[in-house]
Every structure is written in C-alpha cells, then in structure tokens.
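Summary for the steering committee. One of the milestones for this cycle was to obtain a three-dimensional model of the protein with heme C bound, which we needed before selecting residues for the alanine scan. The sequence and ligand used are listed below.
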Amino acid sequence: MRTLMIAAGLCLVAAASHAQDSARIKEVTATVDAKRIQNAESEPGNWLTHGRTYSEQRYSPLDKITDKNIGELGLGWALDLDTNRGLEATPIVVDGVIFASGPWSVVWAVDGRTGKLLWTFDPEVPRQWGRNACCDVVNRGVAVWKGKVYVGTLDGRLMAIDAATGKKAWETDTLIDRSRPYTITGAPRIANGKVIIGNGGAELGVRGYVTAYDAETGKQVWRFFTVPGNPAEPAENAAMARALPTWHGRWWETGGGGTVWDAIVYDPELDLVYLGVGNGSPWAQQARSPGGGDNLYLSSIVAVRADTGEMVWWYQTTPGDTWDYTATQPIILADLQIEGKTRKVLMQAPKNGFFYVLDRRTGQLISAEKFATVTWASGVDKTTGRPIEIPAARYFSGPAVVFPSAFGAHSWHPMSFNPKTGLVYIPAMEIPGVYNVKDYKYDKRTWNLGTDTLETFTAFPPEVAAGSLLAWDPVKQKEAWRIKYETPWNGGTLTTAGNLVFHGVAKGGKFVAYTADTGKKVWEFDAQTGVVAGPVSWSVDGEQYITVMAGWGGVFSLLGGDAAKATGVRYVGRMLTFKLGGKQTLKPLAELPAIPVPPPLPAHVTEATLKEGSRLYHMNCLPCHGPGAVGAGQIRDIRHTDASMFDSYPQILLEGAFVSRGMPKFDDILSKEEAEKIRYFVQAQAIADHEKRNKVPATKR
Ligand code: HEC
C-alpha cells in the first residue's frame, strides 16, 4: 500500500514536471517567427534555423569559450539515442531547448542544460522504405516555427509536430508518385511562413522538385520541378520550357534526377530561395540524354521567389553532369569585399571540386577555383561561367578514373564561414571514382546509374582515399591552411567568435577544435564514434555550450568498404554537449564479439554461381552492405555473421524476417535461386576474409 502511494506520488511529480516542461517549450517556441529568425544575429544564444541565421554561416558570435581557455572544455552531458545508424542533423536550439532528428526521421526534444529527454516523436517510417535510400536512413534536421517543429520523413511526408507535447499537428504527403523511390533526408527551411522541402532518390530514378507548404495548415503553396517532364505533356512553367531543349532521349522514364536533398537557403533581403540541385538520373549522360546537352537544371544553383516558386536565375556548376556532381552542397550567404566593392555573394563547394562565389542577386559567376584534386575540368571560364572540361573524363570510350568521385570533393557535411577571419572551413575529400558505362535499362526496383557501380566504388585502393579540414579564403580563392587526415568523411564544421573551429575526425572517432585563424589544434575529445554532423553553439544563463550529434553514418560509411573500415570507427548514436568545466565521461564501449568462422562452401558451388551471385549482390545489396560485402560496421558486416545465418537467406531476403531491423525484403526482384547465389557469394567473401585475417585457410574447397 505504502509503496503504491509512493509510486503514485512519483507519478504525480513526473506528470507535474512534464507539464512544466511542456509549458516551457510552448512559451519559448511560440515566438519563433519571421521577425525573430531574420534578426537571429541579435540572439547569439540561440540557433533558430538550420545554419543558425538565414545566411547559414554556422558562425556563433559567442566568445566565452576561446582558443585560450578551451583546455577547460569538457563533456556536460551525453544522451544515448539507441541507434547505430548515422546521425547527420544540425540541432535547433531555442532558449536552451534542443530539437534534433535522426535515423528513420525520429525527432527528439532535449533540455539543453541537463540532457534530459523531453519527448521523442517517431513518424513510423515503414522499414521497407529503407531500400529507397541511397545513403543511409538519416535526417539532417528540423525547423522550428511558432510552436511547431517540422520534419521531412524518409518516406516523403512532411510533418508538423506540436513543440510542447511532441504530438503530431499535421502531416502531408509531399510525393507526386509513391511508386517512385523518393526519400527525404534534408532539413526543411521556413521562409515567409512557408515550409520548403525537397527530396532525394536520383540514384534510383526520380524527377526532382521542391514544394512550399503553409506552415500553419500544411496546404501546398507552390512546387518547382528542377528538370522537365515528358515533353508530350505541357511544360509546367517558363523555367521548364527553357530547360526542355537541353535534354534528349527519354530521360523522363527514369525521371531525369535533379533532386534537392540538402541546401535550401532563404535570403530575406532579396526574398529569394536558393536551391542546390542534384545529379542526373541515371548518372551516365549517354544513357540519360544521348546526344548530350546541358540538361538544365541538373547540378545547378537555382534562385526562386519565396512566395511563388518562380525562377529568377540559375547557375549550372556541371553542365551535362555524368559523374554525380550534385550542387546540393551547403550554401552560405555573405557580403564580401571583392576588388574594392561590397558584393552580395553566395558560396558553395559542391561535389565537383570547385569553390564558387556567385553574385546572389543575378547568379553571375564572380570566381571559381579548385579546392581539391579535380581531373574532369581544368578550370572555369570567367566569361561564360562554364567549366573547361577534359574530354576523356566523360568515359565515352571505356572506363575513366576521375577526381573527385561520386562521394564528392565535399558532400553535405556543413561548411562554416567566420566573418572575423574571412575564412570558410570545409570538410574536404580526396577520393577517385572509376566511371564506366554499363548497358542500361530502367528498372524501378533497383539503382539506375547507367554505370558499373562495383567499379565506381571499389576500383581504387583504400589508401588513396583521404580527407582534410580546409580553411579557404573566398576572396582570394586560395587555401589559407589545411589539416590533412588519413581518411575521408570527416565532420561538418562550426566556427565561433572565440577563434575556434570544431569538427569531427573520422579516424579514431575524435571531436576536435582548431584555432580559426591558423589551424592549430587546441582541443580533442574521444567521441568513440565518427562525428559527421554539424556542431552548434548556444547559451543560457551566461554559459556557452557546444552540442553535436555523434554517430558515424551516411553513404561513405555504408559503401566505402575497406576505405571506410580504415577509419576504425565504432557505431554509437549520441547527442553530446560540452561546456567549460564539464566533467562527465562516456561509458566505455563493449568489446566487439569474436568473428565466427564461416562454413565451407558446398562442392556444387561453381565459379559461375559466384560470379552471378556477385552481380546480383552488387545490384541489390551494395548500398547497405558495401562493395564485396565489406561492411564498415554501421550495419553489421554480413561476412562476420553467425554461420547459421547463411542458411536463413531465403527468410531474410524473400520473406522479410528482419524488416523491423531495417533489412528490407527483395521478393519482388529476386528468386529463391538468386537468393542462394547471393548467399554463396557472401559466404565465399567471408571465407576469403577469414583466410586473410588468420593467414591460414579456414576450410578446404
Ligand atoms: C537498405 C539497406 C539494406 C539493403 C539494401 C540490404 N540490407 Fe541486409 N540488412 C540491413 C540492415 C539494417 C540489417 C540489420 C542489421 C542489424 O540488425 O544490425 C541487415 C541485415 C542483414 C542480414 C543479417 C545479418 C545478421 O547477422 O544479423 C543479412 C544476411 C543481410 N542483411 C543480407 C542482405 C543481402 C544479401 C542483401 C541484398 C539482397 C541485403 N541484405 C540488402 C540493411 C540492408
């Protein structure tokens, strides 16, 4: 009886504190509106929108933590998020309340002072949809506006959540066709009371577009397609009519691509929204648009009016893209002094390896220079704004090794700009790609690249893949300093008025700080996992905090194979918050289990079976289990599984035994015999790996 009463009392206390939390969140988020976000510069303690302010510079004016006292920076708290999939989100912070998203589009609200989880919102994305995701089931963030939190879900819905309670306010389906493999991983942005969201899916085959919805009601306001549709139907608008003659063939069957999966940046001064447009579907232009053409608006930055979606200008970084050179990468707005004039610029370091400075009123090129190894073009012509291509890179007559690869010289990992140093901090990459045209026929059940995926992702030795933190002077278009790393896929950056740059280093799983002016390493924290997301800084009651989502993931962690494994990264998903004098420590990770000995292959398995198994594997399993079945560990390495697991392939692949764990089924595309062939291929890879690791034959064939 007594215990019951105590339990009931505790419940009441919990309910009361819950009500207090709700009331507080309601109060602090209700007033986040156009005026506040436009004036976000005057609220240094908050991080109100994706890149902190509408300019998305990811610069924090807070200066309590500096390059001088950073030795005292320590962990304030860590919140375990119970996931081993990638964490890519930039949190939003309003008066000490943190909103962030993660795998399967789950959203969390957290008390920033204590790390207490206030609520979790799970949009219940069907796990089978994971098969449509090229690059992990990640989510890069939410938007907050007048008491609501907005998230785009992996399966293409836009959801509004009541910030106070964590309950759904409304949801809308953003997809034009649910039978197409669209995904949403990017953060919505809010401009003039409209929520703007794009999508991904160009690796599998879709037509890209962006939609604006009324933030209060979820009603659609406008939609902008990025590539033309079937020419038998009328063009949607003048922009599509203009793009049409730049396309040939039957691109609309695969979709054409041009997805806007990350950068959507609002410029309240000019009332424009800049869209970073993605690659072609399929990749190989000869398959997509035989006869060439620029294929507008692939790999372009497109400026549209915030209220109508009408196109104002575009700038194409890679005309006739054939390498997956998306221009979706983060966009930063700034006013720079160039040749004695103040220029309103937009900056981007897209996958193609050039750093672009554009006049954001007109889209005119101001300058573009290589910030990484680039072998597809020798430069960018200042008068035409077009790249000067190296013809062999187009792989018309056989495979070509090209820098950068489809992973990009820089991907979605946010870069930041520090107005004090005048430098942009870019997590840059050096990974070659091997491109080769492959017989291509559109099949909506699988990836549609028009290139040999196995070669693209594996035909380079892992040692050549590297990364760096690059401090770039956008006015001089020149490197200021660079920290080189042995492996790519390092973290997004944050820069602060304390002369600091924070970001994650993949190799060894570190979260590191450098001086912003000179690149001197001043602090390091063992994060136990790779940190890829963009960190944020915020303050309450005079205390400055640094918060980051820690959990290696994304496309390179899934299909980087041995190059990804070389980081030695472990997978744990956490939100970490640091402050001066923080003394918390992370729980040590459990030892990895021993790798089981794989069972021998039965005598009837022939080389031909293994070859066909490899083909089927790389067509269907590569995106999640890696080239040659080399899993870097985020999703367990299927070579290192229990011996008995090999007998369960029919149940796993065809009956969906593990769908709830995110392992989709393939009964629409694979027969029982084909599932067997894949199994023998993976088993043979497991045996080869065992022999290599133990330097002894495991089994006789
Ligand atoms: C969209 C991503 C995705 C694709 C594509 C995919 N898998 Fe998986 N697979 C997963 C996930 C997630 C798990 C669960 C891992 C876990 O629980 O740690 C998994 C688990 C498995 C397991 C069980 C491993 C174990 O030890 O528990 C096997 C076997 C497997 N997958 C084989 C395949 C094969 C073969 C293919 C291609 C036909 C394939 N998978 C395609 C995501 C994927």
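Key point for the committee: The two ends are 68 Å apart (CA to CA).
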